[in-house]
Amino acid sequence: MIPDLSKIRNDFPILDQKVNGRPLIYLDNAATSQRPQQVIDRVNEFSLQINGNIHRATHFMANKTTSAFEESRESVRSYLNATETAEIIFTHGTTESINLVAFSFGEAFIGEGDEVLVTEMEHHANIVPWQMMCSRRGATLKMIPFGDDGVLSLDQMDQLITDKTRILAVTHVSNTLGTVNPIGEIIAKAHLNNIPVLIDGAQAAPHFKIDVQALDCDFYALSGHKMYGPTGIGVLYGKRRWLDRMPPFLGGGEMIDRVTFEKTTYNEIPYKFEAGTPDYVGAIGLGAAIDYLVSQDKPMIQRYEHELLMEATLKLKQIDGLRIYGEAPEKAGVICFNIEGIHPFDLGTLLDQMGIAVRTGRLCADPVMDHFGVENMIRASFAFYNTFEEIDAFYKALIRLKGMFQ
Amino acid sequence: MTIDEIQQGIIEDFSGFEDWMDKYSLLIELGNELTPIDPKYKVESNLIRGCQSRVWLHQEFTEGKIIFEAESDALIVKGLVALLLKIYSNRTPHEILTSEPRFIDEIGLRQHLSPTRSNGLLAMVKQMKLYALAYEKISTKGN
User: Fold this and answer.
1) How would residue B118 be classed by pLDDT, with cut points 50, 70 and 90?
2) Is residue A237 classed as helix, strand or coil in its secondary structure?
3) A343–B75: do the CB atoms touch at under 8 Å?
4) Chain-centre distance of CA A62, in angstroms?
5) Which ipTM was obtained for this model?
6) Measuring CA to CA, how many Å separate B78 from each of A213, B34, B86, B102?
7) How confident is residue A280, by pLDDT bands cut at 50, 70 and 90?
8) Nearest residue in B to A359, CA atom
């Protein structure tokens, strides 16, 4: 059984267009996914009909906006199966979510000589905030390496964990290798050593239903624009027992309880971490995206996305001189590759001429480029609105372009 | 020939193509034909780094003219580099400073000079102009 693609594609009006004279084939979903009409309509409603700042006024539109904002928080809570909405913080995206934890957790729990553990396959957003915090707090950043197949070397985790390790941050799905990490196992292992775990869920949330209670992760970060929602909105899930003990990240309105020039007391979570006027329209849009995802047959879509990835992998492997980076048994969403003798920028430029959108470059993952000793890669990434026909067209385009370079 | 005459020639070379593939095939050909930069100049200090591709640019100033050597790791960029060298190398600082690479726009490849492409080309043009400005100052002082 495959999903009703004509119905799904109808929900995404942007897909029905020509780029450079060819029908658009959008294979850059890991960078940003497209938005269904349901999200567009909901966001428009809060531009055309209703708009008022949240939690601040008594007037009709402000009340409507506040309710919609808090309903979105509930949609997120339910999607992640968090215990309570207070554990759902709206941020600008995964990057801000991780920065928030690196700063506030660092302030509260990390000191001179302590250690933070990440992995070699992280996106820069899950490396740099920790580095910044480590240099501020006098701590050390360590990393768990991965093998050439793209699988984390978890056997090394035991040696890397010491009694100084204060937190572990790992991606759920790698944005380059596509590896689905065994985060349940990683979290359990870390917890045996009393180490809390942050999961970068930016690439996982669009593909999987997340259950933070079953995973028992301490923090989970995700971005709206990678899961069919608006840009500039993201989520940080955190366990109350950590969030309550962490100082605020940003100061300003909303996050306060009472301000005097001598001392300010802070609001309760989640508001303590939502200083200033949040992107409430974005949050409402994200709620609509989650409602849209929930309305789909999730197991069927997950299976279909996996089939798209398998089909693309099989096809690409038939191309002489093509190397796929990351061949973990458990993969989702993305294929990174290079074709011998062809620069990714050239290939990306020519694919664009054929209406095919892919990502090229260093993919915000310098350590992954260094691991394989390459400067750049090409990445194709899939969403459930992609079709087998598009994958075939992509494969044929690569064959044709390869000919241009011989 | 003046810079402008050379640009006009390039525009004419490209104007015959209706299919985008032919245009890019020519760029690839030009890229392949470009004399590689002397390895001793392919160094960090000559590197113009873009997120997508890299360009190396070396220059020498002799007899009032700037000789540029350049190369890129991406072939399409290399083709465009070859064209830029064709118009800007072996020219006086004044000629370089008073000519814009309008051919890129006219052959329909303007997007390659846009800041969003981060392929190093825009930075290369800027860098060539900076060298020209510096040498122009030196030559005027010398007079």
Assistant:
1) low
2) strand
3) yes
4) 30
5) 0.85
6) 53, 7, 12, 18
7) very high
8) B52
The full DSSP string for A74-122 is: HHHHHHHT-S-GGGEEEESSHHHHHHHHHHHHHHHH--TT-EEEEETT-
Is the distance from CB of A119 to CB of A143 less than 8 angstroms?
yes
Contacts of A159 (CB under 8 A, 6+ apart): none
Q: Which of B25, B53, B119 sits opposite A404 (nearest CB)?
A: B25
Distance from CA of A316 to the nearest CA of B (A): 22
Is the residue at A198 inside a domain? yes
Cβ distance A11 to A36 under 8 Å? yes
DSSP letters, A322-357, are: EEEE---SSB-SEEEEEETT--HHHHHHHHHHTTEE
Give B53's DSSP letter.
-
Q: How many angstroms away from the CA of A323 is the closest CA of chain B?
A: 18
CATH code assigned at A392 = 3.90.1150.10
Q: Is the pLDDT of residue A317 over 90?
A: yes
> Which amino acid is present at B11?
I
Exposure letters A177-201 (e unless 16+ CB within 10 A, then b): bbbbbebeebbebbeeeebbbbbbb
Instruction: Write out the catalytic residue numbers of B.
Output: 51
Question: Among the three residues A243, A278, A294, which one is the final residue of a domain in this structure?
Answer: A294
Sign of the dihedral defined by the CA atoms of residues B7, B11, B13, B14, in that order: positive
Distance of alpha carbon A326 from alpha carbon A139, whole angstroms: 31
Cis peptide before A145 (omega within 30 of 0): no
Give the residue from A358, A356, A376, A27 showing the smallest Cα distance to B74: A376
Closest Cβ opposite residue A345 in set B24, B28, B53: B53
Q: Are residues A18 and A62 in the same domain?
A: no
For residues A151 and A51, state if they share a domain.
yes
Q: Please, what sign has the CA dihedral across residues A176, A180, A182, A184?
A: positive
What's the longest Cα–Cα distance across chain A?
A: 73
User: How is residue B78 written in tokens?
Assistant: 């290399």
Which domain covers residue A102, as residue numbers?
Answer: 41-294
Residue A46 has a pLDDT of 94
List alpha helices for A110-182, DSSP H: 128-137, 157-160
In the block, tokens 């093509």 appear at A322
| Among the partner residues B28, B51, B73, nearest to A404 by beta-carbon distance | B28
Give the domain-ending residue among A262, A294, A326: A294
Q: What is the pLDDT of residues A131-167, one digit of tens each?
A: 999 999 999 999 999 999 999 999 999 999 999 999 9
Are A334 and A203 within 8 A, CB to CB? yes
Q: Inspect the interface and report whether the beta carbons of B54 and A345 lie closer than 8 Å.
A: no
Q: Phi first, then psi: what are they for A203, rounded to 5°?
A: -95, -5
If phi over 0 gives left and psi between -120 and 50 gives alpha, with beta otherwise, what is residue A216?
left
Chain A residues with CB-CB distance to B77 below 8 A: 343, 345-346
By the 8 A CB rule, do A267 and A256 touch? yes
Domains recognised in chain B with CATH numbers: 3-142 (3.90.1010.10)
CB-CB under 8 Å, B20 with A353 = yes
